[in-house]
Amino acid sequence: MTTANKLTILRVIMIPLMIVFLYIKPLDKSIGLLGLSINQFIFAILFVIASLTDLLDGYIARKYNQITTFGKFLDPIADKVLVLVALLFLMILDPSRVPIWAVMIVIMREFMVTGIRLLAVDKGVVIAASPYGKFKTATTMIALVLMLFNDFGFTPWIANVIFWIAILFTVISGIDYLLKNKKVVFESI
């Protein structure tokens, strides 16, 4: 098994751990730092570590030619689940800040892009990540980290603006994927 795949598996394992820590009642005490409870702090730290494994496994896979079919399959799933778990947690904490409709936009876009990629694979077409998608991912991760750490004591509007930019680019990148691959999507109608 490659190092890149081991990092992806580590990220997959960390996701349920993040959730488990939220339910450990003795950890639901304030740590006196950023207004976080112990379990929220652990959740946020695990999210950051898992996010860094995503950057690292991609770098290692490309640099050391460790790109595998397993990695191509599991890495995007791990990424999507990691982001969705953090979004759902934040939505539960403050639905006025992270509304369900924004989370649904993210979910719908991810299902659509995954579906388009599956159709493309069936046709032997490889779809590269778009610059819009990369920007969407970067802004989403920054917004999530800021929100998970209660804005690091800064005003919440900074994370809010970044979050709404991420949602905007979620829509833009989804439309971009659909338009660039409409032949693959609509050829069987």
From TrEMBL:
<keyword id="KW-1003">Cell membrane</keyword>
<dbReference type="InterPro" id="IPR048254">
    <property type="entry name" value="CDP_ALCOHOL_P_TRANSF_CS"/>
</dbReference>
<protein>
    <recommendedName>
        <fullName>CDP-diacylglycerol--glycerol-3-phosphate 3-phosphatidyltransferase</fullName>
        <ecNumber>2.7.8.5</ecNumber>
    </recommendedName>
</protein>
<comment type="similarity">
    <text>Belongs to the CDP-alcohol phosphatidyltransferase class-I family.</text>
</comment>
<dbReference type="GO" id="GO:0005886">
    <property type="term" value="C:plasma membrane"/>
</dbReference>
<comment type="pathway">
    <text>Phospholipid metabolism; phosphatidylglycerol biosynthesis; phosphatidylglycerol from CDP-diacylglycerol: step 1/2.</text>
</comment>
<comment type="function">
    <text>This protein catalyzes the committed step to the synthesis of the acidic phospholipids.</text>
</comment>
<dbReference type="InterPro" id="IPR050324">
    <property type="entry name" value="CDP-alcohol_PTase-I"/>
</dbReference>
<keyword id="KW-0472">Membrane</keyword>
<comment type="pathway">
    <text>Lipid metabolism.</text>
</comment>
<dbReference type="GO" id="GO:0008444">
    <property type="term" value="F:CDP-diacylglycerol-glycerol-3-phosphate 3-phosphatidyltransferase activity"/>
</dbReference>
<keyword id="KW-0808">Transferase</keyword>
<dbReference type="InterPro" id="IPR004570">
    <property type="entry name" value="Phosphatidylglycerol_P_synth"/>
</dbReference>
<keyword id="KW-0444">Lipid biosynthesis</keyword>
<keyword id="KW-0594">Phospholipid biosynthesis</keyword>
<dbReference type="InterPro" id="IPR000462">
    <property type="entry name" value="CDP-OH_P_trans"/>
</dbReference>
<dbReference type="GO" id="GO:0046474">
    <property type="term" value="P:glycerophospholipid biosynthetic process"/>
</dbReference>
<dbReference type="Pfam" id="PF01066">
    <property type="entry name" value="CDP-OH_P_transf"/>
</dbReference>
<keyword id="KW-0812">Transmembrane</keyword>
<keyword id="KW-1208">Phospholipid metabolism</keyword>
<keyword id="KW-1133">Transmembrane helix</keyword>
<dbReference type="InterPro" id="IPR043130">
    <property type="entry name" value="CDP-OH_PTrfase_TM_dom"/>
</dbReference>
<keyword id="KW-0443">Lipid metabolism</keyword>
